[in-house]
Amino acid sequence: MTDRLLILGIETSCDETAAAVVSRRESGEGKILSNVVLSQLDEHVPYGGVVPEIAARAHVAALDGLIAEAMRQADATFDDLDAIAATTGPGLIGGLIVGLMTGKAIASAAGKPLFAINHLEGHALTARLTDGLDFPYLLLLVSGGHTQLILVRGVTAYERWGTTIDDALGEAFDKTAKLLSLPYPGGPAVEAAARAGDQARFKLPRPMRGDARLDFSFSGLKTAVRQQASALAPLSEKDVADVCAAFQHAVTETLAERIAPALTRFRDLFGDQPHPALVVAGGVAANAAIRETLTRLCGTHRFQFVAPPHALCTDNAAMIAWAAAERLAAGFDPQSMDVAPRSRWPLDSNAEPALGSGKRGTKA
Ligand code: KG4
Ligand code: ZN
How far is the CA of 291 from the centre of ligand 1 (A)? Predict the structure, then answer.
């Protein structure tokens, strides 16, 4: 018996096939022994978005090899593991079936427990793996499928404070890019174009300004971009850069406005917490302008700003293995073998579905 839990994680909920081996010491210290991710991006680019059928087939083709590679890099055998963890939702159902069935097969062949992990829980707990953060903290999850503010109170104790009532932020970047004929995925393309742009040339709206809820809305911004683009057509390179800069400026200002009251609310609730923290996760967290804005906002509110390394902000299996390690260490039971994948699976089961949200709802 060592004082260390060893977990194999499997992630197949969207367009990344991933496997990882992670350890957790009794002290709570986590270590990533391997973290293998195969992005399917090239296969989806010709279609301008993720095609579920292609994604599921690509997971089938790649997953076994990736798991073998993750185990090899970690220098571990299935026998050494304390548990297998597989993303069980939310996400594209075809991919979830592939990952969960593989996890069940390994668990039953090796006689190990299986943890069915909510992908969002993986994102929510990553900062404890990377930064050893104590509970509670606030999480801003900004990806292609989600824009959520979550209070992370403890393992399995998540409160959704806010969510998008229409488009996810990554989706807004992707749609803006499409409207401006920039390549998919749109986030990096819009950010790059914005660098050369004049953010003051166009005035775009600040959605939900003055609204007391902690929710987000981005579809109005996208509509404003569409109107601006058609008014300008045909767009010069300078026009595209200026619209991107105005869009990104509107996004950063909106994020700061929407998140500030959440920081105040956190402080009101947990005044005795010596180091309150805001953690960011999801693909949009790669955006430098957004990171700068959040850093500034946290500075003003005397919050610590925690941004895990990019590879652990986007989809990966280390976060899935880690979530299972946290569950195991906290005394939660593993799942039975008949657990089923769930394309929709809110992290906070008490949170009402937000009006108009989840139109896409497949990516996390
Ligand atoms: O978390 P992620 O890799 O995948 C899921 O959605 O699960 O996030 C992808 C999203 C895409 O919408 C992409 O356009 C956006 O993150 N993104 C960015 C940037 N890099 C990726 N958005 C803004 N700025 C970026 N630099
Ligand atoms: Zn995700």
Answer: 13
